[in-house]
Amino acid sequence: MSPPSAAAESTTVWAELRHAEPSDVPFIRRMIYQMAEFERLTHLFSATDTSLLSTLFPSPPLPHFFSFTPLVLYLSSTSPPVPSSQTLSITQFSLSSPVVDPDEADFGSPLGDGRRIAGFVICFPNYSTFLAKPGLYIEDIFVREPWRRMGFGKFMLSSVAKKAAELGMGRVEWCVLDWNVNAIEFYKGMGAEVFQEWRICRLTGPSLEKYKDE
Amino acid sequence: MSPPSAAAESTTVWAELRHAEPSDVPFIRRMIYQMAEFERLTHLFSATDTSLLSTLFPSPPLPHFFSFTPLVLYLSSTSPPVPSSQTLSITQFSLSSPVVDPDEADFGSPLGDGRRIAGFVICFPNYSTFLAKPGLYIEDIFVREPWRRMGFGKFMLSSVAKKAAELGMGRVEWCVLDWNVNAIEFYKGMGAEVFQEWRICRLTGPSLEKYKDE
After folding, report:
1. Where is the N-acetyltransferase domain (chains A, B) (predicted)?
2. Which pLDDT score is estimated for A114?
């Protein structure tokens, strides 16, 4: 019998943040829905695989980071990923114990190679007139529930920020809900400034459609 | 002698919101600086004509509203504008009295045709994952001081919103400072929702550059 205080065996997980392929769209759609549930905004959710596919994978394709850019986080506990032209970043995590993932069947790689999808990022260029430079806006950064608080969010945000800095962009920006104190502390720890004075304004639905008739 | 209660003679001004040309860049740069003064953010201003030109007018050019899109507001009190492929919208204003514009010499049309530049808009596409649709983000909308409170801002925002709706975009969004109560009332009057819960996060300068080394 092992003593009750024995350290749990650590588990190695390889993480790859890679540009999404069209085959990743159903996984992205399910994660967007999970995110809408977390943000209490499911009433605003209307994405379908078809609409995501046509808007995120236009034909002809646009260069990564010069238009809407979806990325997915693939994890593998069996073998390190083989880098490809779609790879943004690869790293290795040592977790204190294996993770129980109740949605494993829904997020397994379509390639049947034991990999699973645990998160995603969608970003696109924005523009600062004060800097006269493009920046990168992160519309979504999401890690599925069983994989949170292990460093995967930090890995994704760091990888994207590194790329933006390498591309000479002046800023990386995103939004957070003011009641999401865990996220705010996490972002501040990453070096981000959180602006208190700015408010987002939006025309949408009938309030936008009415301008068609003007 | 006319009675003291006689209505002042009204002045006609034609307004054209048109896609900017490279020759408009010096005017745009001066207006960005005026905007930075108004927002008390001149310490963040570092745009030059060269940096604006290279980032707003890439070669080869990208289609309007599919990337960074600068628009300028031209006014003429002598003759209606002749629509061109650069024209987004034209309208006619009847002002109660002629406007004294102390910066007229700095904002006269380079074509020497009596037109002047009174405002600008810079916008670009953003993306909503919940809608799986592009939207339009207005980075800046600005009217020079002597021309405010006459409807030019409404004309510019309406014209851009109309175009976004026609392009099938799901939202038009922008930001406002929470102390700018005049702007907030104006935007609400235009049908916009102002979100109180979202906060903008930003990595910039050294906080962004450090990710290059990760």
Report:
1. 113-213
2. 76
Model confidence pLDDT, tens digit, residues B47-93: 999 999 999 999 888 899 999 999 999 999 888 999 999 999 999 99
Q: What ipTM is given for this predicted complex?
A: 0.91
| Cα atoms in the Cβ-side hemisphere of radius 13 Å centred on A152 | 26
Neighbour-count burial for A162-180, b at 16+ CB within 10 Å, e otherwise: bbbbeeebbbbbbbbbeee
B62 touches chain A (CB under 8 A): no
What are the structure tokens assigned to B31, written together?
A: 């207006």
Residue B201 to residue A207, Cβ atoms within 8 A:
no
Token couple for B70 = 């600068």
pLDDT tens for each residue of B128-159: 999 999 999 999 999 999 999 999 999 999 99
Residues of B in contact with A185 (CB under 8 A): none
Please report the pLDDT score of residue B111 as a whole number.
67
Matching residue, tokens 């980032």: B55
**Could you say which residues of chain A have pLDDT below 70?**
1-8, 110-112
Q: Is B199 helix (H, G, I), strand (E, B) or coil?
A: strand
Mean pLDDT estimate for chain B: 92
From the number of C-beta atoms within 10 Å of its C-beta (0-12, 13-18, 19+), residue A30 rates as middle
Catalytic residues of A: 187
- Residue for token digits 């927002």? B39
Q: Could you count the other beta carbons within 10 Å of the beta carbon of residue A199?
A: 21
DSSP string, A46-105: ---HHHHHHHHS-SSPPPTTSS-EEEEEEEESSSPPPP-TTEEEEEEEEESSPPP-TTGG
What does DSSP say about strands B116-128 and B69-76: parallel, antiparallel, or unpaired? Answer: antiparallel
Cβ contacts of A212 on chain B, cutoff 8 Å: 162, 165-166
d(CA B4, nearest CA chain A) in Å:
38
